[in-house]
Amino acid sequence: MSKSFIKFSWLTLVFIFLVVVAGSVVRSTGSGMGCPDWPKCFDQVIPPTDISELPVNYKDIYVFKRKTKVDKFANLLTNIGMTTIAEELKNDKSLLIEQDFNWKRTWTEYGNRLTGFIAGNLVFITLLWILLKYRRHRALVLLSFLNLILMGFEGWMGSIVVATNLVPWILTLHMLFALIIIWIQIKIIQIAKGQSFSIKMTKSFKYLFYISIVLTVIQILLGTQVRQTIDFMVADNVDRGAWLSNMTIDFYFHRSLIWLVIGINSILYWLNRKNNYGITLFTLILGLIGLELISGILFSYAGMPALLQPVHLVVATLLLAVQLYALVYFKYKRESLIR
User: What is the domain class of 197-339 according to CATH?
Assistant: First the structure.
């Protein structure tokens, strides 16, 4: 039974990653507003394939719905003290511009939502499984419950992303919580497997590894900011070949920071071998960083091909996942929780 639960937990993690992949494809194809409402798409469970299936005044309908949701969200921000941001949202006239119907973008966004729906249900089943079989293990109960709450929160954030027409800081927050969900799912797997190791390592090695994780998170969030800049250029019909010349400081900082990431992780790899810690995951970590570097170079010198955009994000997310999984080596007490 424990093997079945572990396999199911891995499956859940795979679908959480697929949500990240689908979201990246949505952004690289400019399909973020393919469905103007949430959770349905054009108020339908199965979205339309032709504009003839929509009311003549569909733009007015969804602009009104968006304005209502934006006002509610702005009021929420005001209540928690974020008055300036709330006023900016209320006064942003660009939020009242509805895109023309495009069935390809609609179905791309629909695929993203369907993937998220499956992942959410897998997280829910994980919680039920734990409550039925392993409820004595409080850590598993708490983590699975928290992940379900966060998945629901991410769904709500998705509706806000749609309502605010992809406002940049909301997208960044959306990505941050996705990373937290991935970390929690990895933690559930590790607890279920009862993994721990008796490796005694120096504090400096630990702290350097923690720094490497923080840098990876910063890189992913900076990449989200860069992605937002690209989204704006797509909206303004800027030619793909001219994107690089229109990049902001976020892009250049993001591009330069990779060398620090490479440097620190190379030192960790060397220390791991020198001190015979035996953490084989550092080889995979360096490999993923190499893939990130190659895709980043192609971004700069190959005209930012659309195919590389989701690949770049997925590799970065995998890198973070491997780093988080490697944290299991920092525990010395051997304990098997699921039998």
Answer: mainly alpha
